[in-house]
Amino acid sequence: MKACRLIPLRHRSDCRTLLFLGALSVLFALQWSGLLRHWLLLPLTCLFCFIAFIARHNHIHCRTFSDRRWNSAYEYLLVLSTGQAAAGIIAIHNERHHDRYHSEADCVRSSLVNLRWNWLNLASFFFVAVYQVHRAKPLDIARWKQEKPLLHRRFVRERWLLYSCLAVLLLIDWRATFIYLGIPWLFGQWGIVTINLLQHQDCDHGSVFDHSRNVTGRFINWLFLNNGFHTAHHLRPGLHWSRLPEFHRKEVAPHMRADLNRRSLLMSIWNQLFARNKRQTV
Q1: Most CB atoms closer than 10 Å: which of 6, 165, 213, 266?
Q2: Rounded Cα distance, 109 and 212, in Å
Q3: Could you give the angle at which helices 149-177 and 118-147 cross, rounded to 10 degrees?
Q4: pTM reported for the whole predicted model
Q5: Where are the domains positioned within the chain?
Q6: Is residue 245 helix, strand or coil?
């Protein structure tokens, strides 16, 4: 904690975020270099990579540092941690999912899949959503060039950094790059996209409070940086993740359907995505 005092964090709770990203970097380095490889390390790396995607999500809503240079350096770390330009998600998530929630412009709306068997919805959602994203993102990035040139230049710099590093790593050891970087990156992307189905499927998208499903368990939110408090996040997207539990308890929980709050992530996944395999399509 003393080291965190030397870093210009806006919220001290992001010491945890930095520790998680540090652990991911160590796991990447050990396995890619061949210094330490074990079959248990790869799923652990995938878990921490998913947390890195959550950290990126948190940062694009609420800057992590009070100093611009620290934020820029941190964004480059997020690029290498997730295998994607950190700025690129702003168009899809902030501008489309939040500002135009569950409209035709929302590339990750739960209504993209509406099959009778919910396990098929779960299996297909990622691919359908990614297809929508890849159709929309080039248009958004092109628009940024005129309307948001600073953000556009940041996106280009981040993409060049990623492609340059990836090219070098592939030339040195393509197999290790695919396995020890590519698989965790893909898992993290799958997780951060597919979680939208759990969070929004069969909710009341026109409601102020009942548009999202929440997971309120203490440990799972400690690990996933309070990502379970999704209704609170949609109501106050700029609120730092460390403050979401209190906001949920005071301003959200008293007004929403009780069945949209569950303590266990596994039970929430089971009840929503597996226990009711056959759905009533609309």
Answers
A1: 213
A2: 11
A3: 130
A4: 0.95
A5: 3-274
A6: helix
